[in-house]
Design goal:
Length: about 160
């Protein structure tokens, strides 16, 4: 299933992601793609808010994984941009997918062959200074359901 959401501001992107975060379940996997500065970490801030995480969310570019465990579910925020040549097995990233939290993976195409079979993929594209086009693609029944819930929830409008 594929849907597109248009955001006109950072605040709207955060609010949309917050609604999604409130619907996430243990072991959900969200993949984020988009150019540098497109809003992947901004989106993750909203997801964290929806999970009840009150910590400052920072990009994991240099640490590879940032863990946030003070919400209703743990959040594992990964940035695999620099891992083209590495295996997630070697780095222990695979363990996060089954750890009962929510895994958010930025630049996931670099480790595509190592990812779970089911996930929700978001591609964030600039559509202006503040505007973003967010393309949501679900892979698997769990994510078809999640996507339907997110898109049909008009309380964020």
């Amino acid at each position: 299933m594929k849907q597109v959401f248009y955001s006109t501001s950072q605040e709207e992107t955060v609010h949309f992601a917050e609604k999604m975060g409130s619907l996430l379940k243990p072991s959900d996997v969200i993949l984020l793609e988009g150019d540098l500065g497109a809003g992947k970490t901004t989106f993750t801030k909203g997801l964290a808010k929806g999970l009840g995480i009150d910590k400052v969310i920072k990009s994991p570019t240099f640490t590879i994984v940032r863990e946030y465990k003070n919400g209703r579910l743990p959040l594992y925020h990964m940035d695999v941009y620099r891992l083209e040549e590495a295996s997630i097995d070697e780095l222990g990233l695979f363990e996060y997918f089954d750890a009962g939290g929510v895994s958010v993976v930025e630049w996931a195409h670099f480790i595509a062959s190592e990812l779970p079979d089911t996930y929700l993929k978001l591609t964030i594209k600039r559509a202006g200074d503040e505007e973003r086009e967010i393309i949501l693609e679900s892979y698997g029944a769990r994510y078809d359901q999640l996507l339907a819930e997110v898109i049909n929830d008009d309380s964020w409008n």
